[in-house]
Design a protein that fits this description.
The chain has helices spanning about 40-50, 70-80, 95-110, 115-125, 140-150, 170-185, 200; strands spanning about 1-10, 15-25, 30-35, 55-60, 65, 80-85, 160-165, 190-195, 205-210, 215. By secondary structure, it is of the alpha/beta class. Helix 3 runs parallel beside helix 5.
Length: about 220
């Protein structure tokens, strides 16, 4: 699988957030997007993840210009191929930890495996075997983030998009989350993540920095 961003840009009225950003990423590769908080990283990831339409340019997935796909086809592609780790986790407060992790499988109507069993296995891998039945308000920030990463991996997506995945975490939790995501890319998948943590950025195969509203490959 590959993703290609071609001259991507996003504006709101006269306000330009991102412009002239291009890159290509394939299976087994990772890219870190680095810029200060609030400068457009989330916007870029949302466009790449087909959550937000670009103002200019296009996102191509395996040769398909996603801007030319119907909403239904785009939604299906996003559900089947992309896993998301949102900056603020966006866990569902009324669901227990394992239920939050299993949510993508419920939406996808998966019947070839037991969603609860898969969710429990993922949470156990993250050291959360004693938090399976806890609600989000009963979890620490680090535990919530690990639940969110487990949810992103639920359907074994080919692409994981993570927005500040280690933000506000203690060193141990941050290392655990980073290791898991980068290992996932090493297994032949694509990892795209935004960060202002320079040490975390250095662990990616490619680093792209924001310069004059355009993300460009770092020297």
């Amino acid at each position: 699988m590959y993703i290609e961003a071609i001259d991507l840009g996003k504006s709101y009225g006269d306000a330009v957030v991102i412009e002239h950003t291009s890159f290509r990423v394939e299976d087994g590769e990772s890219i870190a997007f680095v810029s200060p908080s609030g400068s457009g990283k989330s916007t870029l990831l949302s466009m790449i993840g087909l959550l937000l339409d670009p103002t200019t340019g296009s996102v191509v997935v395996d040769g398909q210009d996603t801007g030319k796909l119907s909403d239904d086809v785009r939604s299906e592609l996003r559900l089947r191929s992309f896993g998301f780790v949102f900056q603020h986790t966006q866990l569902i407060g009324s669901l227990r930890a394992w239920e939050n992790v299993a949510t993508p499988a419920r939406f996808a109507g998966k019947t070839d495996f037991d969603p609860k069993q898969r969710a429990i296995q993922l949470l156990e891998q993250f050291g959360l075997s004693d938090r399976l039945y806890h609600y989000p308000h009963q979890l620490s920030v680090g535990q919530k983030r690990r639940v969110a990463v487990a949810r992103a991996l639920m359907l074994s997506p080919k692409v994981v998009i993570a927005d500040e995945p280690t933000n506000d975490l203690d060193l141990e939790s941050a290392t655990s989350v980073a290791d898991t995501l980068l290992d996932y890319a090493d297994q032949g998948n694509i990892l795209l993540y935004a960060t202002h943590d320079l040490e975390l950025a250095k662990r990616a195969g490619t680093v792209m920095r924001l310069r004059d509203k355009s993300f460009q490959k770092a020297d």
